[in-house]
Amino acid sequence: MPAKPAPIKKSPAKKAAAKEEKPAEPAPEAPPAEAAPAEAAPAEAAPAEAVPAEAAPAPVEGEAAPAAEPAPAAEEPAAEADAPAEAAPAEAAPVEEPPKPPTPPPPPEPTSAPLNLTVEDVNATSVTLKWQQPETIGDSGLDGYTVEYCKEGAAEWVVANAELTVATKLVVAGLTTGDVLNMRVVAVNPGGRSEPAVLAEAVPVRDLVERPKVRLPRSLRTRYVRKVGAQINLVIPFLGKPKPVVSWTKDGEPLDTKRVGIRNSDRDSILFIRTSEREDSGVYEITVKIDSFLDKASLTLQIVDLPGPPASVKLVDTWGFNAALEWTPPKDSGNTEITGYNVQKADKKTGEWFTVLENYHRLNATISDLIMGNSYNFRVFSVNKVGVSEKSVTTKEVATIQKTVPTEVVPCRAGIVYTPPEYQEHDFSEVPKFTAPLIDRAATVGYTTKLLCAVRGCPKPKIEWLKNQMVIGDDPKYRQLSNLGVCSLEIRKPCSFDGGVYTCRAKNDNGVATVSCKLEVKQVIIPEK
What we know:
- The protein is mainly β and 529 residues long.
- Among the domains are: 115-204, Immunoglobulin-like (Sandwich), CATH 2.60.40; 210-304, Immunoglobulin-like (Sandwich); 313-400, Immunoglobulins (Immunoglobulin-like); 430-522, Immunoglobulin-like (Sandwich), CATH 2.60.40.10.
- It is built from three helices and 37 strands.
- Strands 3, 4, 6, 7, 8 and 9 form a six-stranded antiparallel β-sheet that branches. The chain has a five-stranded mixed β-sheet with strand order 11-18-17-13-14, with no helix packed on it. Strands 21, 22, 24, 25 and 26 form a five-stranded antiparallel β-sheet that branches.
- The longest helix has 18 residues, at 70-87.
């Protein structure tokens, strides 16, 4: 039989804690001397607490487990800690708020509708569609597109592609010839389906013999200019089978059939205006359409007229024999640009007009060579591609050339003598300078060669040629030329002894300049057979 474990004695501190738990009557204060045994209580409890847990014997079956007794020992520190808490008022512990759950992200939104859905091709069994990606895609991205079609008159849409396509073009195959289909494209992302992009018109599934095509004449590809009152007759050919539908617009609006006539045939369209006016100017666009296929072409018609006169003209100043004028552009340019102005003068004595400036481009001018003592009026006409304006604008002021004698004019019996001002003569003298130097060359024995250079200077410099610092002079083997500053030395049928350093020397009263090059004369070696 294993020995029974020794009973654990309760310490005085534990007994004191047990007494505190019981409601006790108020007792007289204990004398200070009685507090000494209480302080010694921990010493008595030390042997009991020193017993290790491993030394305790295992419990026998049928007996109560002794492990229940150490539980009060574990509560002793808590009981001791509670004692001072009862003596002093306890402060309320701060209550921690539970953490708030994170804000969930906003749900993804679908994209906007695809753009510019058109039919690229159609035949007896398929239709090819193309489009552009949506303008707004969003942060969630784009998964792809789905293409759907529906027979005209039906309500059920059929999905053409089993899986989403990321391309912006799809061939819808397996269709029945003769069906008329409404078609649409939807963009899909994690937010769902976008608004559909629907074709404006239903597509007939059939073969086209020939697609529509406008063949605009070359003469109409640029601005077509005609004068006011001219008759307009423009023929625009086109292709297409079956017969296409032709429509015209002017500046994006339907044509005024009272002003413009249209005649259509199977191969061309004729636009005619019996008497053109400036209001007929604009951009005309022809559209040729077969089913969902179409082709467009545009031409610019410009009806021009004579310009109006300048808005105003003013005499700015008069001095000596001169008069200064200024004017402003016309308010009516005749529907084309102003190319110039014609200025005329008239002596008040005769009243006859004479043109002094023609096709003048500026808006101010000085009229010279006026006669002293006379008075002049001036007028200005506008000029454009059509011609000169019918009316002109005339100065209100009169330019009077006074008879005063300027300081530079000395009177004499024979009349007025003009003394021109004296100008200091410019010195054009210049030291000789070579603008193109000599270049080293290699010549072949027996083959004439030439050396070239260029020089400038004032007065004209004298040219000398030297070989190895020796003046060549009038040696008949050399030919020396100088024309408009270009100097040349021709060496006739040189031999191997004609090689060396050649120098061209130019000198005048202001200085000397030289330039040199090296000439190498090579012998042709013929290999022996």
